[in-house]
Fold:
Amino acid sequence: MHKGMDVISALQFSRSDIEFLISVAEDLRRVVERGGSLDIAKGRIMFTAFFEPSTRTRLSFQFAMTRLGGVVVDLGPEEVSSMAKGESPEDTLRTVDGYGPDLIVVRHREPGFAAKAAEICRAPVINAGDGYNEHPTQALLDVYTIWRVFGRVDGVRVGLMGDLKYGRTISSLSYALSNFRDVEIHFISPRELQPREEVLRKLDERRVRYEFHEKPDEVLERLDVLYVTRLQKERMKPEEYERLKGSYVITYEYLKKFRRIPVIMHPLPRVWELTPDVDVLPQAMYFEQARNGLYMRMALIKTILGL
Amino acid sequence: MHKGMDVISALQFSRSDIEFLISVAEDLRRVVERGGSLDIAKGRIMFTAFFEPSTRTRLSFQFAMTRLGGVVVDLGPEEVSSMAKGESPEDTLRTVDGYGPDLIVVRHREPGFAAKAAEICRAPVINAGDGYNEHPTQALLDVYTIWRVFGRVDGVRVGLMGDLKYGRTISSLSYALSNFRDVEIHFISPRELQPREEVLRKLDERRVRYEFHEKPDEVLERLDVLYVTRLQKERMKPEEYERLKGSYVITYEYLKKFRRIPVIMHPLPRVWELTPDVDVLPQAMYFEQARNGLYMRMALIKTILGL
Amino acid sequence: MHKGMDVISALQFSRSDIEFLISVAEDLRRVVERGGSLDIAKGRIMFTAFFEPSTRTRLSFQFAMTRLGGVVVDLGPEEVSSMAKGESPEDTLRTVDGYGPDLIVVRHREPGFAAKAAEICRAPVINAGDGYNEHPTQALLDVYTIWRVFGRVDGVRVGLMGDLKYGRTISSLSYALSNFRDVEIHFISPRELQPREEVLRKLDERRVRYEFHEKPDEVLERLDVLYVTRLQKERMKPEEYERLKGSYVITYEYLKKFRRIPVIMHPLPRVWELTPDVDVLPQAMYFEQARNGLYMRMALIKTILGL
Structure:
């Protein structure tokens, strides 16, 4: 990890990289929570280019940069439509890169787009989601959240639930977890939405232990963390969807049946797969998780800008 | 009134609160008009979340915060559509509140939404319009405008014209005016668009004198201020609308028929109910009124942030 | 040229104005490229109002103001739709002008709109495109690019290709070039898309030498610069369009046929009229041209704000 680096994949981060970022995030958190104001990114410009709509991730990056004293220039949503009129996103990035941003945050529906952007741009590029491929900063904040809750990541048992095939947070989080010892990953999904072969192969190479489950009931009491994501209707056969959807909704009622409730995480936004009545449980960690994202992204920006 | 307070309803403000805010607004105006630059909100972040489209109010708050040296992060318009995809505005606010804004400005079509937002959020919340319910900062700048024109608010006779039933500026302004002595309110509207019962009840409790008129002609010469708002076609029976609409258009021609022309105010934007030929009259105060909004919102932000 | 001036037309700029702006741009470039941070616009606010969608020009102005240490408040794209609901852009500008921006950048599809805006607003107004009429800051950066490549503008032979009738960059660049000695302009377009009479008349008054060509082949080897713009289908008869379009596409293959390839410029965004395979040529200057826009706009803002 070094000043000026691009962040394209969670595979880039070693255990010590992640531990370093966590310690920077904790330092920044202490300053911010004491009400301190930071000025270390003064005069620096971050360009955020979300070619796919985003609110949460975009705002999280904007707050992170602003909290460090820097400035954000945003591509704006209209670009997405002006894309239709013809300019390629590559041309847009190359042009704006010429305006001299210190950092570019990019999201695009095309897997591999962030890597391409990093080749085009002189400024360091952070991948804020490239299609179903990866979302590495989400993985960093997820691991940070686990670390904060358990005081360690080694030995943690994580259930990943929902659309594991096309969920970019799933692959990135699995990769990030693969740096830690004795982690168990439990993939909970309909069979046709299990993780892609390329993801499993990488986990095999890294000797990560994982199991498959078709329903959360089978494994819930053995989990430290249940990481909920959405099951997307358009990705399943209608009859399959109808048969299975009920099994992928986490409610207060459902969780109360178990003797031991794991920590509940979710990358948000949630729709119907995690009902608001769960929010009152002490195990509901998703809003805290989002908040951790602020500090982790501040840590990443600080590191990349060499501040 | 105190640091960290939420601003949900014009009913929160006592006479002395309003007088205090006016004096702060006047102080800030002097600094800005002398070309001075303010830095007192340095390092502070205001989050603006307009779930209903807005230009004027959003820009007014953005300029106010910027003029104080603070930074604005905006939800952006795309969120409105991403709402459709599923996340509740409550989740959005709760998440962004976790990023630590110093102040949240919120608009939403649901009456009572701002109060709900204030419960969810740790940061102070300013209501920038909750459906037909209230728009308290508009009321503050309206009263400030009256104060600047007449040197007082006591004894002023104000005609409120247009859709009084669903106009949120109408209820908030009436409440704000109720703090002052001998104010007369003249409600000028079709019968079916008179203020809601709950609004009138509050004015009764506060012993405000008010009268109803169906047309402005009946009362125009007795007014100090004619406050024009739009009559919305979709809120009336078609035949009623056709019969009455001509009576709710204020033109130069129309005003010139009277011996005494009141000060003309309008929350803007205007459509056809107030024609541009009125702009040349010395009584046309609506652009000045918008400008007063800048200073009043600066005063409010300064007070809430305790600067 | 003076502090507080409006920038409406390229005709405003004399040769010495342009040379002055180029020297300021070069100074600013040196500071920025050395990694220096500027703070001279601290506390100043630029308001960008693009009533017609724009990405490149808007972002270029935003980066320019930000690089100078100032702040940008943007109208936002939603206003364009809220326009439909009724408020006139004149009202919008007059209102926001009252909030005290130090500078207003405006784009609108109506020719002459920027001049009207300058009359309405107390703040200086920069025309960022008014319909088919003018785009003076584009002309300044185009001339700056020519100056950087050739070390002079006098005597340069420029081919302007594409829709010359409705292309606002065409008229503005022609006007800017008219300040220099022995410039030759070659208009390359279908006959029905030659520049408007009013434009040619102004060039005649200023004794600019120009010729018309129907295809680039006729003149390409005589050019120092080929300035490519888009041919818009909707502006031509279908049969004409089909007959001619092939002649207005600049590809690597096409250029390689000539012994001498001119510098290729383009205001961007490009669509099909300039293929990406041209980017590898040393003569491809369009991304550098966009980058020059940053410094030229910084120079202009600095001059107008009197910094």
About this structure: DSSP finds eleven helices and nine strands in chain A. Chain A has two domains: 10-135+291-304, 136-289.
